[in-house]
Amino acid sequence: MKKYIITLSILFAALAMSAQEVIWKMTYDVAFPFSSTKEFTDQVSWRGLSLDVDRFVGDNLAVGFGFSWSTFVEKESDSSYERDLILLHGTQVRYINNIPLTARLSWYQPLDALELYGTLGVGAAWHELRREIGTFAFVGNYWQFAMTPEVGAVFPVGSSYLTAKVRYVMAFETDDAPDLSYLSVGLGFAW
Question: What value does the mean pLDDT take over residues 54-76?
Fold first, then answer.
């Protein structure tokens, strides 16, 4: 995992240094689970953050990279879980940690008071599924192909910029891992 973060950091830095016109966006994200994600934990994620950078290669077209993180947590008292002919009973806590890393292609449309954009991100998503019952923990770590379509807006407020977005994250099912999908709503700053 460490080598992926270092590689991503170098790419972000190289993109920022070579860019004529770059827009950075950092948002706080709230995520709503769908499909297998909702089956594992049905709770809204209040723990989310994303950092995106786009470099303009034309008047309206930009390419870039995106990084986001969301954690879903659900606690269930007095529950049972059976695995490998073992039946466990007690308080169960289920976690999903998700980190999509994507290359982005964005189209920006300037309007009078704001700038709208649409983005398609394609890359990989790492996620950890963790189920804890008492002192037992069952953990799965997975890398999956992921897509992250997004729509949003950047608008000036005084001398700075705010951004708002809606992003759908979809990590596709593999032989080892279930599909993962959620809708995140973000609000933050752009520069």
Answer: 93
The residue ranking higher by pLDDT, 77 or 26, is 26
Domain with 154, as residue range(s), is: 2-190
Tell me phi and psi for residue 148, to 5 degrees: -135, 80
Q: What whole-number distance in Å separates Cα of residue 118 and Cα of residue 130?
A: 33
pLDDT at 52 over 60: yes
Q: How many CA atoms lie within 13 A of 143 on its CB side?
A: 6
Distance between CA atoms of residues 126 and 145, nearest Å = 9
Task: Quote the number of domains for the chain.
Answer: 1
Burial of residue 129, with CB atoms counted within 10 A of its CB: 0-12 exposed, 13-18 middle, 19 or more buried: buried
* SS3 label, residue 20: coil
What 8-state DSSP symbol labels residue 21? S
Specify the range with the lowest mean pLDDT, choosing from 17-26, 38-47, 79-88, 181-190.
Answer: 79-88
The CATH number for 124's domain is 2.40.160.20
What's the mean pLDDT in 148-161? 92
Nearest to 175 by CA among 148, 154, 150, 145: 145
Please state, in angstroms and as integers, the Cα–Cα distance from residue 86 to each residue in 63, 95, 139, 147, following that order: 50, 21, 16, 37
Q: Which runs of E-coded beta strand occur in 37-178?
A: 47-56, 61-83, 86-110, 115-133, 136-157, 160-171
